[in-house]
Amino acid sequence: MDQEQLKLEEVNFFTSLYGELPDSMSDLPIGIFPHISDKDFNFLNTPISNEEIKSTLFDIVPLKAPGSDRYHALFYQSQWDHVGTSVCRWVKGIFDDESIDPDLNNSLLFLIPKIQNLKGFAHFWPISLCYVLYKLVMKVIANRFKKVFCNLIAPEQTSF
Fold first, then answer.
1. What band does 39 get if pLDDT is binned at 50, 70 and 90?
2. What value does the CA radius of gyration of the chain take, rounded to a whole number of Å?
3. If we measure between CA atoms, which residue out of 153, 132, 152 comes closest to residue 59?
4. Residue whose C-alpha is closest to residue 140's, from 97, 102, 88, 63
5. What's the pLDDT tens digit per position in 132-148?
6. How far is the first Cα of the chain from the last one, in angstroms, to the nearest whole number?
7. Residues ≥6 apart with Cβ < 8 Å to 134
8. What count of Cα atoms within 13 Å lies in the side-chain half-sphere of residue 7?
9. Which uninterrupted H or E stretch holds 3?
10. What is the 3 state secondary structure string of 6-31?
11. 3-state SS string for 61-127
12. How confident is the model at residue 25 (pLDDT cuts 50, 70, 90)?
């Protein structure tokens, strides 16, 4: 199998594994699903604080896999007194409709073998390496949604 065929097979495998074609939702009755309350909506739209940014950064595992810039979260954590103001300004800018630099939005995807005798892409774990600052923004968003989801998900939906 040549490189182009291999690339095509890889893209097709992971697209079918992680991709999703949404079904039409036009037939669903209106009002049967919970919705975000005004209080939760206002909470989600509250400006991000420096403390929220800092605590989120310090929740990231210090030496977890770095992005292609090779910086770990430990760098930002250990140098917080020097870089904290700039990091907070940058993160707040993202939430004020500034765009993320395309280079920071890139991730490296590595395929780690699960077994010795590889016979297809199902025998790999895909590992995505993202920049720490990108992870930080995503974790701030995720942390906020965690606080709201408990009001939207019924107790019997435990697998979510």
1. very high
2. 20
3. 132
4. 88
5. 999 999 999 999 999 99
6. 40
7. 67, 100, 104, 105, 107
8. 3
9. helix 3-18
10. HHHHHHHHHHHHHCCCCCCCCCCCCC
11. CCCCCCCCCCCCHHHHHHCHHHHHHHHHHHHHHHHCCCCCCCCCCCEEEEEEECCCCCCCHHHEEEE
12. low
Residue 32 identity (one-letter amino acid): I
Entry pTM: 0.75
Phi-psi region of 21 (alpha: psi -120 to 50; beta: other; left: phi over 0): beta
Residue 47's identity, in one-letter code, is P
Torsion, Cα 45 49 55 56, to 10 degrees, reads 40
pLDDT for the residue 158 = 61
- Helix or strand holding residue 58 (H, E): helix 50-59
